[in-house]
Amino acid sequence: FMLWTESNEKLLDFLNALNSFDNNLKFTWKISTESVTFLDIDVYIKKGYLKHKINVKPTNTFQYLHYNSCHPVYVKRSIPKSLATRATKLCSESEDLKNYFSNIYDAFLKREYPEKLLNEKLQLNESNLNNNYVK
Length: 135
Known about the structure:
The chain is of the alpha+beta class. It has a domain at 57-130. Helix content is 43%, strand content 12%. The chain has helices spanning 8-18, 73-90, 94-110, 115-121, 126-130; strands at residues 35-38, 41-46, 49-54. The protein has a 3-stranded antiparallel beta sheet, with helices on one face. The longest helix is centred in the middle third of the chain and has 18 residues, at 73-90. It is elongated and about 55 Å long. The relative contact order is 0.11.
């Protein structure tokens, strides 16, 4: 992932030069003026600023550990909390965070997690919307 401020022609020259150093090492790239996915994060431009949100791949089935499994309760309670904490850190826009919370809330309900637990662990409030770790 990188930002490029020169012309597209210079960018292609640079990328081709990278691929000319070693025959066993080849770089791939995606060039976009709007958004790019890096690891599991979508980085996009909104009103001239870089923003980021969690990338959910089309193959993601949200098949989290079933609540009726024989795992210890602390494990089952920590999964929604850890996903919420991660999302709070990785979503720069409150709307993206709300959408992600909605998706995982529904997914956990399908896995029979109690609503009370989900409401507690996936609590979306002003403090976690305004205090993202990554800006």
